[in-house]
Amino acid sequence: MQNIVNVTYNQTGKSKSTNKFGMREMQQKAYEARTAQYILIKAPPASGKSRALMFIGLDKLINQDIKKVIVAVPERSIGSSFAKTALKQFGFFADWEPNPRYNLCTPGVEKSKVTAFLNFLESDEKILICTHATLRFAFDAIEEKQLDDCLLAIDEFHHVSVDGDNKLGIVLSSVMAKSTAHVVAMTGSFFRGDSVPILLPEDEAKFTKVKYDYYQQLNGYEYLKSLGIGYHFYQGKYTAAIHEVLDQSKKTIVHIPSVNSGESEKDKYEEVNRIVDGIGELDYQDPDTGVLYVISKTTGKTLKIADLVHDNQKDRDKIQAYLRTIKSVDDIDIIIALGMAKEGFDWPYCEHALTVGYRGSLTEIIQIIGRATRDSANKSHSQFTNLIAQPDAEDDLVKLSVNNMLKAITASLLMEQVLAPNFKFKPKYSDEDESNEVNEEGEDYITINGFKLPSSQRAKDIIESDINDLKAKIMQDEQMIKAMPGNVDPEVINKVLIPKIIKETYPDLTDEEVEAVRQHIVVDSVIKNGTIEEVGDKRFIRMADSFVNIDDIHIDLIDSINPFQKAFEILSKSVTASVFKAIQETIDATRITMTEEEAIILWPKIVNFKKKTGELPSIQSFDPQERRLAEAIIFLKEQKRKAASNE
Fold it and tell me: How distant is the alpha carbon of residue 17 from its chain centre?
């Protein structure tokens, strides 16, 4: 299996080194924002968000007159991340010492936990840890004013949304509107995978944003040198194909598909059994830990396997307890999970995250990849593999399979951009402008002719903090997916479809602000999909079919490049000719409806085509862009006919 993405890092050790207070790089950035009432920390898995919250929470309790800290996590297992922690030994002024009585991330009914929550508010205790569910239930029993001068910390903040059915979102909105509470929100990504925003624009604007990107994190590791992202396409049952990509010598987490997905074989227990049987023969299951001891068919080695799929709570608690106490690389070899072992799950020895089925949320992909990107002495390379069902032309689910394949590939390209070093862009006003350069932070400055800088703080904040989440929304949009295989002109993609999604996402932006954000997204995508090469003392960039001096880039050139071209090339090389034909036919059947805006953009290209060839574009052409020009002619003729009939 060939990787679609392979990123290497410099192993600087910077992200793991600490200052005089015991704070790592990301935690220092977060702590600088500690006096803000609302703080949003966007940082990847393993960057230390939980400890960053401890530093901020203690400062608010001791130095900012905050009375209590309430930490809410999505599931009970993550509560252990906020357990008692000695910070004084590293140079900080206080230790994190929650009372075990008010750690509500324990087995038990919600009614008793809500009672404990209410008792906490009336007590002299300072720290409470609970699940999102407990917070929601407790909120029904209190007034917002009871949270005055408290700090509410929400871990895995992407679980919140402004949807009327999202009770956690309702809790947050009410707390912000009706109390003096402080809020710290923490997440690895702001992209949920649906169309519902996490925060309303007016609420989001109140947050001080702390951003620490994936490249900063991974580049600053000591051991991890590279990360690969690959896709393996299969037909038939995934349990028969999974062993083609399951390397038994690698510490692996296998995430099987949801029972509602097309990849599921509709019996999750039997799927686990088939995976285990494919690995080898079950020797025995430890009654105390729940670990399965399986003798490998290929190596004869005994492998330790954890099954997190079975629903029996007693058995699941047993194996989860074992996994939380892992101290050695030899303690477990393979973990099989369904909805677990993602957020907050810490297995630093994991080398391979093998996921069956397309994941619609960039956040979920980031969380899964994060399981394999902990820095550990046992690995120099981490791998994410997505096992995706390949469409069968005879299958009624061919459309679903095609969409999943296209979305999986665009997600991989987006992840490549998330994992790559950042570029900074600025306009080039004259030949006397200083040349492109790299600053002390390692950010590459590239000057672009005709490039538009954001004119407002709102647009600057979106570009600085939300660019990858906005790209995710754009690249996972249904219209954009259908545009990927080259059947839509690049300028239509860049100048019509992308700004349309920006406007839908940020309706408060002016046209000028939308254009600045649009340019930045397109430029960033095209540059990161390109290849920069040095020839003598000059640098050139290869973008699609263009190879240009990096000092001579113009925004018009970038707007003429399909940001999906690389995805199309990957797709055409990854499947057989018959499957590729089925994919093209499926996309053709759901072609994007022509708009007047698109037709206007295409008209000069039609004129140019006629000048070059002496003929008008043909609807029967094998070239998808020529066919689209022909469709534009038909559309314009129809518009002219309609206009004439109305006169």
Answer: 26
C-beta atoms surrounding 121 within 10 Å = 16
pLDDT tens-digit readout, 509-527 = 999 999 999 999 999 888 8
Instruction: Find where tokens 């408290």 sit.
Output: 150
DSSP 3-state of 232: strand
pLDDT single digits (tens) 323-379: 888 889 999 999 999 877 666 577 999 999 999 987 766 677 878 888 898 899 999
Give dist(CA 350, CA 370) in Å, integer: 10
Q: Tell how strand 381-389 and strand 352-356 pair up.
A: parallel
Whether 404 and 425 have beta carbons less than 8 Å apart is answered as no
The two structure tokens encoding residue 408: 């999986």
First to last CA, the chain: 62
Domain shared by 159 and 176, yes or no: yes
Q: Are residues 93 and 135 in the same domain?
A: yes
DSSP string, 558-574: HHTS-TTHHHHHHHHHH
Looking up tokens 């994060």 gives 370
Domain boundaries, position 274: 220-389
| Same domain membership, residue 364 and residue 227 | yes
Q: Which of 71, 81, 31, 82 is nearest to 55 (CA)?
A: 31
Read off the tokens for 327: 């101290």
Provide the H-helix boundaries in 49-130. 49-63, 110-122
User: How far is Cα 480 from Cα 376, in angstroms, rounded to an integer?
Assistant: 38
| Structural domain count of the chain | 3
User: Can you read off the two tokens belonging to residue 164?
Assistant: 């009327």
Torsion of the alpha carbons at 245, 249, 250 and 256, rounded to the nearest 10: 50
Residues 448 and 367 in one domain: no
Find the CATH number of the domain harbouring 253.
3.40.50.300
DSSP character at residue 121: H
What is the gyration radius of the CA atoms in the chain, in angstroms?
26
Q: Is 30 left (phi over 0), alpha (psi -120 to 50) or beta?
A: alpha
**Strand order across the 531-535 sheet:** 531-535, 538-543, 546-549
Q: Are residues 588 and 453 in the same domain?
A: yes
Q: What angle do CA 394, 397, 399 make, to 5 degrees?
A: 100
Cα(21)–Cα(43) distance, integer angstroms: 20
**What average pLDDT does the chain have?**
84
Distances (CA, A) of 510 to 401, 427, 491, 501, 504: 38, 20, 21, 14, 12
Amino acid at 435: S
* Full-model pTM: 0.74
Distance in angstroms (rounded) separating the CA atoms of residues 68 and 65: 9
**Chosen domain end from 592, 611, 635:** 592
Which residues are CB-contacts of 304 (< 8 A; sequence separation ≥ 6)?
291, 292, 293, 294, 330, 331, 332, 333, 334
Q: 119 and 165: one domain?
A: yes
Per-residue pLDDT of 234-260, as tens digits, reads 888 999 999 999 999 999 999 999 888
Domain boundary among 168, 194, 216: 216
In this structure, are 66 and 171 located in the same domain? yes
